[in-house]
Amino acid sequence: MKFSFKNDYSEGGHPTILQALLQHNLDQQAGYGEDVYSLKAKEIIKRKINKDDSEIFFVSGGTQANLIVISSVLKPYQCVISASTGHILNNETGAIEATGHKVLSIETPDGKLRPTDIIPVLENHRNVPHQVMPKLIYISNSTELGTIYRAEELEELSDFCREHGLFLFMDGARLGHGLTSEASDLTLEKVAELTDVFYLGGTKNGALIGEAIVLNNPALQEDFAFNIKQKGALLAKGRLLGIQFLELMKDDLYFDLAKHANQQAMKIKNTLKERGVAFLSDTYTNQIFPVLSQHLIDVLSESFEFYVWKRVDDQFSAIRLITSWNTSDDAVNHFIEIIEREL
Known about the structure:
By secondary structure, this protein is an alpha/beta fold. The protein has 14 helices and 13 strands.
């Protein structure tokens, strides 16, 4: 059986989560997120972000979180701005557009947005009322290219959004990996301070399923639960999500798992760098994009699964390797052995 570096959700849930689900399986609890586990998990998250006035909602997946947040925040004539690599543009089957909201795309070299990127888009949408109104900035941390926002960058973007009356939404499908990156100086508390809404991704970091939407801006909180119900995301057995986030957050398991994934990826990255391999982007999270020869890609494909991400020229392509909370030393060491042998 091949080792998989295709994604960070190939496995099921962390054993601690499975044990908790089994332990509390026969406990009778209220439905729709009013169970004691969900309520405790929300209180822990509020303590970690140091914001008692934030509201937290659990949903099953990232696409669901994105479409619910964006369709809830925006009025019918408003739109969202995203980097061209954004998940809402490339991997959600037009889910945002299906709710009636246009996504404006910006090309960036590293998957991140900066005020200088956004200004031209705002200037090109001043033909009122004939064009859609940009109102929400969508970013990912870590990004779809494995890059991260440092504190200064997020502060600058947050200040810009508030100055221009824009909402700032952070897709946190891999937020754990972004915050525990060796290059990160952001904290969860800082993320909550600087964004109007973000979410903590569980699906890609040890949970069976689940994302925790955190609404920091009080103006966005009113009636948000109606949107969750209307979009079919309000689980009757909300405990399924609550128990998972309680286990992930109470002893910082969430961050320990993300850190492990990052460290495994960095072992591979450092080995490749030592042998002069170039990368599509300079990343310090659990996603890396080395540029390899077709011969080496073929050799690695005998033992590993991964995506060939982008063809560079006739002889070289960038591949995407993603490590997970469960990526073993055996898998990483075997990959490194092949690299050392072939290069």
